[in-house]
Amino acid sequence: MMKNARIWISVAAAAGLMACGHKVEKRDPGPAVTVKVAEAAPKLMPAGEAYTGSVKSRRAVTISTKMMGRVLRLYVEEGQSVRRGQPLVDVDAAEAQSAYDQARAGLQAAEIASNNADRDLERFQNLFDQKAVTRHQLEQAQAGAAAVRAQKAQAEANVKMAGTLLSYGRITAPSDGIVTRRWLDPGNLAYPGAPLLTLEDPSDLEIGVAVPEERSRLLAPGQAADVRVDGFPEPLRGTLASVVPATAPLSRT
Predict the structure, then answer these.
(1) Which of 248, 250, 249, 177 has the alpha carbon at shortest distance from 208?
(2) What is the pLDDT of residues 31-73, one digit of tens each?
């Protein structure tokens, strides 16, 4: 090892002596060039990474019913646009209809009783003014009329509640949107809270992306990203809206 090193040094020294013996030719440096000088400093450079995500609406509504019944009719199909208040589903509301009819009959009876009680009270008031009945009898008539009026108010509340239950048989669109999924067909039994349709607003879309757990620490809201969507020839410019600090236990994303 040491012998080889000495030989290399000797050859290099000899080459240097030979070079010193030649005349150095002077060259024209040319015009002066302006350059910018900056102090070297560490800087984070953007690193391009690609992730696959799913486009979805920020305003998606799952349509369900508040009553149990058989689906009688579906007015819409998947992919159809709907407007707010448009009929979507009819659910069998035979029981609710019976309850509503009963409540209406009870209200009619309460109205008749209230009218009779008011006439009796007016007659007792006239008799009391003529000193034909006692104050106790007048007070009894007043109490009876008040009780009948309370029964009438209860009957009106029953009608209102029965009407609300009956309205659950006709389900309308809560907002404008597109039907993206139909969960049941006519003839199926619908349960309270079970999905019937999914309605999404196409005017407010977002892309959900699952990223590796270790890469998520490098992401922050406000960062820009190029988004490529099938059907669009050019990439779209997007902004990272939020980073959800939740990890899928199986994929660790």
Answers:
(1) 248
(2) 877 888 888 887 765 567 888 888 888 889 999 998 888 999 9
Closest CA to 196 of 18, 63, 58: 63
Residue scoring higher pLDDT (2 or 205): 205
| Global pTM value | 0.57
Give the DSSP H or E segment for 72.
Answer: strand 69-74
Helices (H) and strands (E) in the chain, counts: 4, 12
The angle that helices 135-167 and 94-129 make with each other, rounded to 10 degrees, is: 160
How far is it, in rounded angstroms, from Cα 169 to Cα 165? 8
What CA–CA distances, in Å, run from 243 to 11, 207, 212, 253? 65, 12, 12, 12
For 101, residues 6+ apart whose C-beta sits below 8 A from its C-beta are none
Closest CA to 87 of 190, 195, 171, 181: 171
Instruction: Give tens-digit pLDDT for 109-136.
Output: 999 999 999 999 999 999 989 988 899 9
What stretches of the chain show up as alpha helix (H) in DSSP?
2-20, 94-129, 135-167, 213-216
Q: Which residues pair with 64 in a beta bridge?
A: 195
Report the SS3 class of residue 36.
Answer: coil
Strands, E assignment, 158-218: 170-172, 177-182, 189-190, 195-200, 205-209
Amino acid at 120: D
Q: Is 224 exposed, middle or buried (0-12, 13-18, 19+ CB in 10 A)?
A: exposed
The pair phi, psi for residue 199, each rounded to 5°, is -120, 130
